[in-house]
Amino acid sequence: MTAIDQSLFMRALRREPVERTPIWLMRQAGRYLPEYRATRERAGSFLDLAGNPELACEVTLQPIERYGFDAAILFSDILILPHVMGRGLGFKPGEGPYFERPVRSAADIDALPMPDANEDTDYVMEAVRLIRSALPQGTPLIGFAGSPWTVATYMIEGRSSKDFARAKKLLLADPEAAGRLMNHLADATADYLAAQVEAGADALMIFDSWGGVLSPRLYHAFSLASQARIVERLKSSCPDVPVILFGKGCGQHLEALVDTGCAGLGVDWTLDLSEARVRVGDKVALQGNLDPAVLLTNPEVIAAETRRVLDSFGDGPGHVFNLGHGITPDVPPEHVSVLVETVREHSRRE
Q: Which positions are annotated as active-site residues?
C-alpha cells in the first residue's frame, strides 16, 4: 500500500482502526488565514485566484503548512462547471456569486454544452497536479464538486437565494426539463471529478449545500438521484477512490444517501454523530460535525465542544473530524490550533 493509502484519513474512510481521529476542515483554505488574504490580494479577484493553478496550489497548501491537517482539499469553486458552460460567472463583494446568463427555460437547459474536463477546466487539473506534487508525502488530496441541485440553484436563480423560488418552480412545473438539467450536470460532474482523480486527487467530495431546502419527494427525485448517478459513474471510472457526500440540512436522508454507494457521509451540526452512527451502521464512514460557530468562542469552549463531538461518535473506526459546514472568515487562526490539538489529544488511542 502507498503512503496515501496508509494515511489516517484514507484508513478512516475505509473504517479501519486508526491511532487517532484524522481532521481536516471544510473551507480550510480561506479568509480566516492572513496568508490566504495576502495571496487573494495578489490574485486580484476570487476567480483569478481559482483560475491560477500556481496560486490555487499556494492557498491549498497554506493550512497544511500551518496546522498539519490530515488531508488537503483542492482550492476551487462549486460553480466552475456552469462557468465553463458559458453562463457568465462573476462575484460581487458582499453579495457572492452571480450569473450574467441564468438558465430560465427548457431551451436554455437543452442548449447547455457538455464540458471537456481536461480542456475546459484544464487550470483546475493543473492545480491538482501541482498540489499533489507539493503536498507532504502521505497527505491525501480531496477533489470536489457541487451537487447538481446545488449548482442548479445558482444557475436558475442567477445568484444566491433565500427561498429558491425559481429553482423549485422548475422542479414542480417542468419536472422533465429539470430532470434533463440534473442529468446533464451529473454527467458533467462525474467527468470533472474523474479528471481530478486522473490528475492526482485521492478522494472526492460532493457538496449539496441546498439539498435541505427541498421537500422529501423533490429531494429524492432530483438532488439524491443526481448524486447517485455521479457515484455510480465514478464507481466505473475510478472504483478505488472514496466519495464523500455532504448535504447541509439533510440529516433525515442519511439512509438514502448511504444507498448511493458512497464511502463517507458528511454530517452537519444539527444531528448528533451518535444518532447518525446508529442509523448508518458500519456501511459508511462519518465526517463532522462541530458547529462552525464554536470556533468564535474561546479555547475552553472549543476544547469542550470538540471533545463532545468525539465522544458522541464514540469508540471504533470510521470517523473523520470536521466542521458541520465551512469555517467562517472571522475565526481567529489560533482557535483552529486549539481545535486541532484537542482532536489529536482526545482521540489518541494506545
A: 27, 31, 40, 77, 154
